[in-house]
Amino acid sequence: KMVVRASLNPRMGAPAERVIDYVTERAGMSTKAGAEAGINYRPISGEEARVFWADRVAGRPWSVESVTGSMGGGKTVLLLSLASIYGLQKHVVVMGANQSDLDTLPFVRAEAISYEDGIALMASGLRRHVVVIDDASRFFGHWASGTVDARVLHNTLTVGVRKTDSHVLWALQDSGLLEKHASGITTVSWSKPPLMGYVDVDRGAHLKRSRRADRAFRMLPPDEWVKHAWVEESGAIGSFMGMVPIPLPRGWTERMSRSM
Question: Half-sphere exposure of residue 135, counting CA atoms within 13 Å on the CB side?
Answer without folding.
Answer: 10
